[in-house]
Amino acid sequence: RKEVEQDPGPFNVPEGATVAFNCTYSNSASQSFFWYRQDCRKEPKLLMSVYSSGNEDGRFTAQLNRASQYISLLIRDSKLSDSATYLCVANTGGFKTIFGAGTRLFVKA
Amino acid sequence: DTGVSQNPRHKITKRGQNVTFRCDPISEHNRLYWYRQTLGQGPEFLTYFQNEAQLEKSRLLSDRFSAERPKGSFSTLEIQRTEQGDSAMYLCASSSQSNYGYTFGSGTRLTVV
C-alpha cells in the first residue's frame, strides 16, 4: 500500500466548474500536509499547506481530517490555467516527505 | 534569480557512464533534498542534507548513487555506471524548516541510452 494515495484521474471539467480531489495517507504520525501543483514537464510548486481547521486561498480550499487520515482540495470556478497535476504530500517530520502520484486535471473551455 | 538552480537541465548519457548533477539551493535554506521522478509518479525521496550533513539516504538508492554538500551550500548528485532504469527527472529542493513546503528546482532530466 502506498503511503499517500490519490485518484490519478484525469478529471475533465468545464470552465467555471467546482472540482474536488481527495487523498489518503497511511502514516498516522504525519504532521504536516501540503498540496503541490505540477505542470507538464515542470517542477512541482507549492500550492498551499493544509491545516486541521481547513484553509482557503482564493478559489482553493484545503481540508484535513486526521481521524480518517484524509486530505482534500477543492477548486471553485475552475480556470483553463488550473489544468495541471495536483500532488498530495504528507510529512512525518524532518526529511520524510511523501508525495502522492498526483491527480490530473483538465479544464476545458 | 533567488530560486533553486539545477544544472544541467538535460543529460543524455550512454549506459555505463558516470554523470554528476549540481543543485544550488536558496541561500538561506539549510535543508536540501534530492528526489527522483518518473512519468506518472510523484517525486520519490533520494537523500536529505541539513547544512553539510547527509542525514538520510533512501534504501532505494543503490551504492552507485552518491551525494555531497561540502560546505552546506550547493550539492552534487553523482550516478556511477548508469543504467537505463536511472532515466528520470532528478529534482532538488530546499527548505528552511522541515514543516515548511519545499521549493524545487527545474530538475535535471537524465536519459540513459
What does this entry show, briefly?
Chain A is mostly beta strands and 109 residues long.
Give structural notes:
The complex is a heterodimer of chains A (109) and B (113). Chain A has no helices and 11 strands. In chain A, strand 9 (84-91) and strand 10 (97-99) form a beta hairpin. Chain A has strands at residues 4-6, 11-14, 19-25, 32-38, 44-50, 55-57, 60-65, 70-75, 84-91, 97-99, 103-108. With 109 residues, chain A is an all-beta fold. The mean pLDDT of chain A is 94. Chain B has 113 residues and is mainly beta. In chain B, 0% of the residues lie in helices and 50% in strands. Chain B contains no helices and 11 strands. In chain B, strands 2, 4, 5, 6, 9, 10 and 11 form a 7-stranded mixed beta sheet that branches. Chain B is globular. The model of chain B has no long low-confidence stretch (mean pLDDT 93).
Largest interface: A-B, 25 and 22 residues
From the spread of the alpha carbons, the general shape of chain A counts as globular
Largest sheet of chain B: 7 strands, mixed
CA-CA gap between termini of chain B: 33 Å
Please describe the biggest sheet of chain A, giving its number of strands, its sense, and whether it closes into a barrel: 6 strands, mixed
Q: Estimate what percentage of residues of chain A fall within beta strands.
A: over 45%
What is the number of helical segments of chain B per DSSP (H or I, 4+ residues)?
0
Computed Rg of chain B: 13 Å
Instruction: Name the quaternary structure.
Output: heterodimer
Helix-strand pattern of chain A: EEEEEEEEEEE
Strand content of chain B: over 45%
Distance between the termini of chain A: 37 Å
Taking all Cα atoms into account, the compactness measure Rg of chain A is 13 Å
